[in-house]
Design goal:
- The protein has two helices and no strands.
- The chain is mainly alpha-helical.
- Helix 1 runs antiparallel to helix 2.
- The longest helix has 82 residues.
Length: 116
């Protein structure tokens, strides 16, 4: 993942942790019974868990999309390079075969001239 993606994930984790700590501290200092406070903490914890799951889903979907895009671009570029190399090989192979054929004809002609 890119450095930007790591920073975003770190910031997201920090925000969620800070929100959870703030909610818990706020509830602990609120003037309510312990049973009610624990119930609120449990509810908020579940809410935060659901929010974290949703954010994780969003982030993982973005990462998957970016991976697919990069992968597709890489495959396309690799195919273009392969075709360019093959075309260059075919071009130079044909030139070499043509020049070699001309050289063979010249050598044969020279040998025939020497025989006569």
């Amino acid at each position: 993942m890119s450095r930007k993606g790591n920073n975003t994930a770190g910031i997201l984790a920090g925000l969620l942790a800070g929100a959870a700590a703030g909610v818990i501290l706020g509830m602990l200092y609120a003037p309510e019974e312990g049973k009610e406070t624990r119930k609120k903490i449990r509810t908020k914890a579940n809410d935060l868990k659901d929010q974290a799951k949703n954010k994780y889903g969003e982030v993982s979907e973005k990462v998957k999309d970016q991976y697919d895009s990069i992968s597709s671009t890489f495959k396309e570029t690799a195919n273009n390079v392969a075709h360019t190399v093959k075309d260059g090989y075919d071009k130079y192979k044909d030139q070499i075969v043509s020049k070699t054929t001309d050289m063979v004809k010249d050598v044969e002609s020279g040998l025939n001239d020497l025989k006569n």
